[in-house]
Amino acid sequence: MLASSQETHVGVEAWRGLAAWMVVYVHYWGFSGHDWPPMRFAHTGVDLFFVLSGFVFAPYLWGKPLSPTAFALRRFFRIYPAYLLALAVYVGLKLQAGHPPLYLWEHLSFFQVQSREMAFYYNPPFWSLPAEVEFYVVLPWLAWSLRQARWAWAGWLLAALGLRVVLGYFGDPSSQDASYIMNFHLPGVGVEFLLGALAWRVAQIQLHLCWRTLLVLVGFAGWCALAVWFGQVGDAGVNNSVLKGQMGALAALCFAPMVAGMLGSPTARPPRDTTIGPPESRAWHVAALWAGRLSYGVYLFHMAALQMVQPWRETLAEHWPLGLQSLAVLLTVLMALLSYWLWEEPWRQFGRRQAASMEAAN
């Protein structure tokens, strides 16, 4: 679901793929009674996407030229066509099941996060896209403010942290009040994007391998500790604790050092000729690139794939030993591939050409 001038960076693509499949795991196997409870915390793959978005767009915050109109064109044609296709699929599934196409205008305009029912009506992962778009909207303004005063960076980060704490404290999941809803919009998730941007800044420092490894280990240990606790108490336990509304931000706080430590300089690109290097290096390179390229499609379509195979549950139980979810995984990959080749990439290239023409004209 992310793109930038660094999208061929193999490490970024690998992280994108990981984020998408973390979400798939939770929706397919999490809370099934047969899963490992700490892995239910893999739903924070969404927060990893937010961190990565902040990471790949961070150069604009530190001086990279930004044309707001051209940037908006690239973002629109990267995000919206694939989302529109996925929304059409889910609307078709609703109609097939005999349900009315409610909240359609809200979903078409990215205003669907007004309640849990509205946000989840077609596809639960759709809730994260408005926050992503909101970050795109404010990014030019954030970049401008930081050009005026470099110290403003610390102020924005502290303000975002404070706002997240306040929204989490006053938010009521049962009534879904304004504080609870805003925690899923940019005021609430803004800290996660800023942590990703900070991770990019740290990654520019020429740290010794030992320090980078320490960043990764600290982040991973923190995420594991949160996962174990979440596996024990669940959402109910979190909502009854002082960490109510903060688990996504805390997960992002763990992802940020891992991303910073593992990716290094985000301007480094892998060789364009993938025949260079040992076979295992080429295989990793290709696998990571495609994991990232398909991550948006996997994120958008995996719930549709699961719904599509549900009618064959009993037949599959007798003749498909790998289980219903494994067939849904295969269908998800197929749908993501077709979407990428036939729809996402053509529209993305079109948007890039339009943006380049606009920048050249200026």
TrEMBL record:
The keyword RNA-binding does not apply. GO terms for cellular component: membrane. Residues 11-343 form the Acyltransferase domain. The chain crosses the membrane at residues 12-29, 41-63, 75-93, 126-144, 151-170, 182-202, 209-230, 242-263, 283-302, 322-343. Coiled coil: none annotated. Keywords: Acyltransferase, Membrane, Transferase, Transmembrane, Transmembrane helix. One of its GO terms (biological process) is polysaccharide biosynthetic process. GO terms for molecular function: acyltransferase activity, transferring groups other than amino-acyl groups. The keyword S-adenosyl-L-methionine does not apply. Pfam families: Acyl_transf_3 (PF01757). This is Acyltransferase.
